Amino acid sequence: MPEFLKTAFAPEDGRAAIPVALLRQGGYARAALEGAVERLFGACGISFAPGERVLVKPNLVSRRNARLSCTHPEVVRAVCAYVLDCGAKPRVADSPAFGTAARVAGACGLTQSVASLGLRVSNLERPAPLRLLAGGSIGLSRDALDADRIVSVARLKAHCQFRVTASVKNLFGCVCGCRKALAHMRLGETHGAMESMVLDVAAALPPTAAVVDGIVCLHKGGPVRGEAFAMGLLGASAAPLALDTTLFALLGQSPATVPLWAEAQRRGLPGAQLAELSFPLEPPSAFDASGFVIAGALDPMRFEPLRFVRGRVKSLLDRLG
Questions:
Q1: How far is C-alpha 79 from the geometric centre of its chain's CA atoms?
Q2: Number of Cβ atoms within 10 Å of the Cβ of 108
Q3: What is the full per-residue pLDDT of the chain (321 aa) written as tens digits?
Q4: How far is CA 243 from CA 156, 238, 295, in A?
Q5: Rounded CA separation 49/277 (Å)
Q6: 3-state helix, strand, coil in the chain (%, to 5)
Q7: In Å, what is the CA distance from 211 to each residue of 62, 74, 130, 271?
Q8: CA distances from 34 to 56, 59, 65 (A)
Q9: Alpha carbons within 13 A on the beta-carbon side of 188
Q10: C-alpha 215 chain-centroid distance
């Protein structure tokens, strides 16, 4: 961690701190993860009421490199186990831009992991229009909007367009299917429009907590292609943006380099400032991110039409298959 950040992680006098819980976690053993999630949620004050409908939202981005580009299935399972122990009702669902959640879940091993809890993976569907600050609207899943609570369960990744992604960007998956790719085509050339849309989506959803899998991250690429980077970190917060702010800073980034963080600070959103955060378990300085490779120059936000057409064909084949 850069030296200046070691002193930045301290709440200002008189300001209520937002808890961000971090734990060192060496692997994906089931029993250890269940214990870790319980500790993290307890430290952040996260619990679920009996009967509460909880959408557990993994990052199911693609069948390509699925074991690394998607959230690790055992982390998702551990969150679901905690929700069930509270007497709440978890639903595991996502909406990949191309393909189906079930196909991607099968490729990354999530289908098998949650089946032992009596759960299955489904698609987020039934789009409802959400007006965007950047103009126009986008179809946000009613399945997500109808949940009582959401838990974003993301993997920490480098990203060729957003530089680094975690909890908040994962919530963009609540937009139904190819509408995400269409948004890249429609808004991708307007400076700041994509990150503005991601924050609009997050703001429209029910109360959301976050867990981030930084045990093994993806770097040297992203969001799909890339390589593994072992950081040994598992994190949680009742405020997804606060957790992401911690992780961005831990990776040596700043709002000037992470567009989504810059837009969150411009809006004055809670959790976007380092001085707002507290760390009831491990401090960020306990983790070593040296060697995590992030792209210097970002790719354009806009998707080319041919990429969209190829993706739509793939989605149709997935649904037929």
A1: 14
A2: 26
A3: 454 455 455 555 445 699 999 999 999 999 999 999 999 999 999 999 999 999 999 999 999 999 999 999 999 999 999 999 999 999 999 999 778 999 999 999 999 999 999 999 999 999 999 999 988 899 999 999 999 999 999 999 999 999 999 999 999 999 998 877 777 566 656 677 889 999 999 999 999 999 999 999 999 999 999 999 999 999 999 999 999 999 999 999 999 999 999 999 999 999 999 999 999 999 999 999 999 999 888 877 655 554 544 544 454 445 545
A4: 11, 9, 21
A5: 26
A6: 40, 20, 40
A7: 20, 12, 25, 15
A8: 15, 19, 25
A9: 18
A10: 14
* One-letter amino acid of 242: A
**β-bridge pairing 277-278 and 18-19:** parallel
Cα(150)–Cα(152) distance, integer angstroms: 6
How far is residue 5's CA from residue 26's CA, in Å, rounded to a whole number?
24
Structure tokens at 60: 């199911």
Residue 117 · residue 110 · CB < 8 Å: no
**Cβ-Cβ contacts under 8 Å for 271 (sequence gap 6 or more):** 18, 237, 239, 240, 241, 242, 243, 244, 245, 264, 277
Contact 50, 95 (CB under 8 A): no
Q: Nearest-CA neighbor of 244 among 222, 214, 268?
A: 214
Give CA–CA dist 249/76, Å, rounded. Answer: 25
> Would you say the pTM of this structure is higher than 0.85?
yes
Nearest partner of 249 among 25, 10, 76, judged by Cα: 10
Nearest-CA neighbor of 75 among 39, 28, 122? 28
Domain boundaries of the chain, sorted by first residue: 3-320
Structure tokens given for 253: 């980034």
Query: From CA 170, how far away is CA 229, in angstroms rounded?
Result: 19
Does domain 3-320 match CATH 2.60.40? Answer: no
